[in-house]
Amino acid sequence: EAFVGELRHYQRRGLAWMQFLGRLGLGGCLADDMGLGKTATTLAHLVDGLDGIEPQWGRVVVDDRGATGRPGFYAGGDCINGGKEVVNAAHDGKRAAHAIHQYLTEGGPDA
User: Fold this and answer.
1) pLDDT band at residue 83, thresholds of 50, 70 and 90?
2) What is the dihedral of CA 30, 9, 58, 86, to 10 degrees?
3) If you compute the radius of gyration of the chain from its CA atoms, what whole number of angstroms results?
4) Residue 9's CB: how many other CB atoms inside 10 A?
5) So what's the pLDDT on residue 58?
6) Which of 30, 48, 89, 109 is an S-S bond match for 38, by CB 3.0 to 4.6 Å?
7) CB under 8 Å, gap of 24 or more: what pairs does 54-59 form?
């Protein structure tokens, strides 16, 4: 599968930045204002050559902890809910943050 859509110029710049950081083994955060397309930019970045990241109907598929099919990769907020209300997105992001913390401090999801 591939990302299907056309990114705006500022989304392409954000995607290029995230890909640059990824090549360096680093992560980043898109902090654009609400409504500027962070979800599309993030989905384009996630599906660009990463096995185990499964987009489905404009959302990233995750388990109940926010983990994707790729070990150590988590998603929350608009990436998994497709742009539901902000309260749900914040809750999903917090759940993913807890799972990331567990992964980093306890050695993975099964620890």
Assistant:
1) low
2) 40
3) 14
4) 7
5) 61
6) 30
7) 54/1, 55/1, 55/3, 57/82, 58/82
> CA torsion, points 84, 87, 90, 95, in degrees to nearest 10?
-90
CA distances from 51 to 71, 76, 82, 95, 107 (A): 10, 18, 21, 23, 21
Long-range contacts from 89-93, C-beta under 8 angstroms, 24+ separation: 92/66
**pLDDT score of 1:** 46
Q: What's the whole-model pTM score?
A: 0.42
Choice between 66 and 76, residue whose per-residue pLDDT is larger? 66
Q: Would you give the end-to-end CA distance of the chain in angstroms?
A: 32
